[in-house]
Design a protein that fits this description.
heterodimer; A: alpha/beta; Rossmann fold; four-stranded antiparallel β-sheet; globular; disordered N terminus; B: mainly alpha; MetI-like fold; 3 strands; 65% helix
Chain lengths: 289, 437
Amino acid sequence: MAVESKTQSRSAALETATAAAGGSEPTARRTVGDVSVPNPVMTCRQVNVHYGDKHAIRDVSLDVAHNEVIAMIGPSGCGKSTLLRCLNRLNDTIPTAVVTGTITLDGQDIYERRQDVVQLRARVGMVFQKPNPFPKSVYENVAYGPRIHGLAADRTELDEIVQTSLQRAGLWEEVKDRLDQPGTALSGGQQQRLCIARTIAVGPEVILMDEPCSALDPIATARIEDLIDELRQNYAICIVTHSMQQAARVSQRTAYFHLGDLIEVGSTDMIFTNPKHRLTEGYITGRFG
Amino acid sequence: MNKPDPLRTAQEQGRIRDLVERGLRRRYRAERRFRAYGLAAAVSGLLFVGFLFLSIISTGYTAFVQSYIQIDIRFDAELIDPEGKQVEEILRMGDYSGVFKAALREKFPQVEGRRELRQLYGLISDGSAFDLRDMVLDDPRLIGQTRELWLMASDDIDQLVKGKIDRKLPEDQRVVSDLQLGWLDALTAEDRVERRFNRVFFTAGDSREPEQAGVLGAVVGSFLTLAVTLLLSFPIGVAAAIYLEEFAPANRFTDMIEVNINNLAAVPSIVFGLLGLAVFIKFFGVPRSAPLVGGLVLTLMTLPTIIIASRAAIKAVPPSIREAALGMGASQVQVVAHHVLPLAMPGMLTGAIIGMARALGESAPLLMIGMVAFIADIPGSLTDPATVLPVQVFLWADSPERAFLERTSGAIMVLLVFLLVMNAAAVILRQKFERRW
């Protein structure tokens, strides 16, 4: 199944970008498997990202469905994190990054000029590889998002948001007595759950997770994975991971990237039991990566 | 099986161990040598600082005491208020130096002749007349009474009492005459000479008479000047650093600004003085010699230091914190105000400390804008003529009177204490801002 060229206007921009990048590079590989889903929350169509001269991802099209966990796997430098950072326009902070193609959230182009980045990032939250709580108290960490977006009318409402978010992140029982202690004093796993609580406190529709467990021990990892499974009831989650076991455990769909190309997409069961593409098969069987 | 690995034969392993062994000794020697150099550098640095402090303190500590001479003063109505009106204006005009001169004559009645009398009057500081006047103005009932009072000794007598003038020198080589020596010894024998804490040194402005000169004028001048400098250079410097680091587009214009700022930090400070003279005094008409214009000039000088340090501090804020805030949907300004600024504040304050310490010790640019003038009054506002501590040190060091020597060192000590207090305040502030992550 090929990519439908929904937007003709984009292809012109795409050509210019390709030409600028050096012209005669090999055409993008066709993705194996169905990239689209019915009623998606986010869609990417023919997304290309250049960092200066480097063509980081090529013609990637992929949908994110409601209430699903989609895992992005692939060897280092394959562009999975780059795609993730396009979904909330965090790539905007890199001056040399050029993004072309269409990415929509609920049918609306997020790279359109009318789209406000602040609004977008409130709707598409992000959890990073290294737990990065603010050097403030646990409470302030969670209350920060609601505060800057003006989500709570008064202190009781804010308290409620903080409590609910911490409960959903499975951290409430551990920190309820020390909300005023610095978030950086928690253990690594707790810090990461604090970051998740902070993200869900602003009520996003999609949560992006960039290798959220790579800095954690197996027990903390297991807790986060359980959490991801629970969060799926309310949010769409994109997770980038280097651990194939993790991808198999938490996700419903898996996308395999290789050197900037989206090689294969499919249900996680299928990707791990019956991969169609030889690159996918090579990666998941551990021949390279 | 494969052929044996050459690195794994017993013979080869022994050779490797030998090589490492030999290298090991050399490495440890190099390490010991390196440590010795470092220690030597630290010790010699400490020695120099110690020597500096020792020399300043040993010459300067006597500036904090002053000799006083006790004498029976008769507040003669004839000299103070001949018409007995007791009006302030008339009391103010009284001949108070006549009062203590009469007292000295009474004490040593055998002294005769103008030259000898002048030597006798030279025992007591001329400034004592003002002290006596103030006493009478405070309490006019003193007129007609006699009191035993401690009056300030003149600077040369003071130096003699402190042992800074050698009695054994021939008379024509020392400032204190044999006659004065005799009188002083007579007074000492009666326990009428005493060394007391030199309050004047801390409460008076500059004076031509060493015993009446104090550092308060310069301390207040330094304080006002640095207040202007801090209030201007810190906000401007931090704002410039934030703009350049967070908002400025990366283009040739920004590059040019950056190069210029770095060069400004290396401009000799006297050039800033000339600039201040031309721009602030000549063009804008800011009053000369005033803390305001001094602060403006020092602001120009301090800005590059603060900007460079602040930019480094902003750069050192971990990108993960920035990304976390951006990922939460914070706007650029919110990221800066809520996260970057608080985390960079300790580094910025360090830059401010360095800049302010340099500004405090600066005298060259201030010479250009007239802060080198002799100013006896303590400045009361930003536009009053003033001088600053380093310039005061310079002025005193330049004075011929021997007593200014110890006062120069005394003023240096005051300057160092000023610096210490300022830096301590900044360090405390910095610790308040410092956070772990």
